[in-house]
Amino acid sequence: MDIIRNFCIIAHIDHGKSTLADRLLMKTGTLDERDFQDQVLDDMELERERGITIKSHAIQMEHEHQGKQYLLNLIDTPGHVDFSYEVSRSIAACEGALLIVDATQGIQAQTISVLYQAIEHNLEIIPILNKMDSDSAMPDDVKDQIEDLIGCDRSEIIEASGKTGQGVDEILEAIIERISAPKGDPDAPLQALIFDSVFNSYRGIFAYFRIMNGSIRKGELVKFVATGKEYYADEVGVLKFGPEPRDVLSAGDVGYIISGIKTSKEVKVGDTITHVDRPTTEIISGFEDVKPMVFAGIYPVDADDYEDLRNSIEKLQLNDASLTFIPESSAALGFGFRCGFLGLLHMEIIQERLDREFNMDVITTVPNVSFNVISTKGELMEVHNPSGLPVSTAIDHIEEPFITAQVISQAEYVGSVMNLCLDKRGTLKNQVYLTSNRVELTFDMPLAEIVFDFYDRLKSISKGYASFDYHPHGYRKADLVKLDILLNGDMVDALSTLIHRDNAYDFGRRICVKLKELIPRQQYEVAIQAAIGAKVIARETVKALRKDVTAKCYGGDITRKRKLLEKQKKGKKRMRQVGNIEVPQSAFLAVLKLD
């Protein structure tokens, strides 16, 4: 065990962790030149396109140090706040972490929150200053920030560059010297933590695990504690550039198991694997259950695809344990699912993956957060969907979730960041100058306000410099109303939203104007209305397309024309009674991007 080192990488988006991971793989000879491509661990097409890491990836490297061969298990993690759950799982499987900070940007908010998680798990932190080759690097300032944050010695900070390969040898040396070898008893009963799972259409499910105690052999009968199911280990092995089978893995190893599992429900990430004949007494408490923050309905465009959509979402859930879903139905859209996401980026990624990996055409409704509704009888209901709200006379009050938001920005943007947060019903709690030019602002604000477009607007007013992180802290009473959208008097339930009373008028008016552009013209007038209860607060009208029925009628008395026009009017009236209006997919999307 003393030759094994398990470590993960912590970094903010775009601080160069995937590039640095490439360098480590090249240096240790895990990859040859032939297989090499930039960001080699980001194997999903979507990751390469957007330049972000979405999934954690595990890979084993071998490195010789002072005449001894070491095994290094690297678990590469995402940097975006929506995927912090992936990071928490990786942290539970490691003894050390590389903290990568961009020398041109300094420490960002999300780096701090993940770092605290790592410190709580007693991980050894190795600070690395990346992008040292850049002209705009400020090594001394950033080193001061790192010193303040972790209280390490200045000499411990490694200067590196993923682009030129500077500092890679020092990093490998630091991993071996500073990170402790895994502790555990190879002879104790088997106890392994599952930290990820992947679906393979030929071989079923690969579960990735890290063994805390004991050992596992090929062909042994093992049990997954949370689900209580038993399997034979058909194949166990380590993760090199691809899976490599081994006969036995023991304490401290990171590897995979294939046991003919077919359905996703049987693998719970965070579960403990143990032997059937010699089970472990305690299960590993690796990390907490995930709490979705944003809810949205996902419906198939074609109602016949409902079952296919269910299967696709289940397969995605395997690979992304933070996605939750329950079936629901809507009058406008038919049958679909109410899905819970960690944030808007997460929602976008899931939509894209449904489209690419499973060819599913879906409609997504307006995202919203979950509310607590207290009835007049004093009962508490959790509502994820505005249409699930009881009648207004039965509601005593509604509580909405609040968050503590931390924004780190350059001093010159503080004013505009504050304005944005105050517009979003936030209250400023604290303001700390980290350096002469960097400020950390702490706000209390409702989660519902950041769901829509907060992050995009924050980035644009701070020219991309502000970074943002949040964590929930309970529910508070709020003056919320349900805003309905009516088309010719029929409610479109997929466009209903729960919104603060102060914002309802403005929001209602803007939606009506937007829908007027997007709903195609009919043979009759279409009234678009926004209403709170029975009170209409905004209206727009889509004018009718009108055929000129009097074209052939020239000369003579006006009553000849009048007769034709009256006949047309009657026809339109009849049409309006039977006609129903299709709301195009673009209308649902446009509501998300009202600004």
Explain this structure to me?
The model has no long low-confidence stretch (mean pLDDT 79). The longest helix is centred in the C-terminal third of the chain and has 21 residues, at 558-578. The protein is α+β, with helices and mostly antiparallel strands. Strand 21 (371-375) and strand 22 form a beta hairpin. It folds into 5 domains: 4-178, Rossmann fold (3-Layer(aba) Sandwich), CATH 3.40.50.300; 191-275, Translation factors (Elongation Factor Tu (Ef-tu), domain 3); 294-367, Alpha-Beta Plaits; 372-478, Alpha-Beta Plaits (2-Layer Sandwich), CATH 3.30.70.240; 482-592, 2-Layer Sandwich (Alpha-Beta Plaits), CATH 3.30.70.2570. Helix 7 crosses helix 8. It is globular and about 110 Å long. Strands 11-10-16-7-8-15-12-13 form an 8-stranded antiparallel β-sheet. Strands 2-3-1-4-5-6 form a 6-stranded mixed β-sheet, with helices on both faces. It has 14 helices and 31 strands. Helix content is 27%, strand content 34%. The two termini are 56 Å apart.
Topology diagram in text:
Elements: E1 4-11, H1 17-27, H2 45-50, E2 57-65, E3 68-76, H3 84-92, E4 96-102, H4 109-120, E5 124-130, H5 139-150, E6 158-159, H6 168-178, E7 191-200, E8 204-213, E9 215-217, E10 221-224, E11 229-232, E12 235-239, E13 243-246, E14 248-250, E15 254-258, E16 272-275, E17 294-300, H7 306-319, E18 324-330, E19 334-341, H8 344-358, E20 362-364, E21 371-375, E22 380-383, E23 395-410, H9 414-423, E24 427-433, E25 438-446, H10 447-451, H11 454-461, E26 467-478, E27 480-487, E28 490-491, E29 497-500, H12 501-518, E30 526-532, E31 535-542, H13 558-578, H14 585-592
Helix pairs in contact: 7-8, 12-14
